[in-house]
Amino acid sequence: MSSPPSAAAAWLDGRALDGPEAVAEAVREATGGGAHLSLDALGSHATCTASIRSLHRRGRHVQVGLLPAAQGHPAVPMDLVIAYELELRGSHGMPAHAYPELLRLVTAGVLRPAALVTRTIGLADAPRALATMDGPTGGGMCLIRP
User: Fold this and answer.
1) pTM: predicted TM-score of the whole model, two decimal places
2) Do 67 and 47 meet the contact criterion of CB atoms below 8 Å apart?
3) Which of 19, 59, 95, 121 could form a disulfide with 125 if both were Cys (CB 3.0 to 4.6 A apart)?
């Protein structure tokens, strides 16, 4: 992993932390009181909870996409939302009419989605990779090649 772009940024390895509260505490410590913005696009109850718990007073959490219905409803810490005057936002995702602009930004090099890929595996390794998705896997995305 490359080094942070500035002294204001911090890199945390969630694999070494035990549960959402430990992750939230590490973020609050690394940021000197909490993040001003958290974004969860994984769709896990644990990451949703950790993101909200990691926020600074008057912070904002954005939940991108749906949480799995099979897990039930997430336990949103409403006591913290009220006490810290947090703002929660939901985003269903990018609308199709915005794809041309997105692709223009990728083509121009402004957005670099390839930088998110940290591992590439073959199709034969996909079942094993899918079976481990419910646990910590580290940052980045895994690309499956046929």
Assistant:
1) 0.65
2) no
3) 121
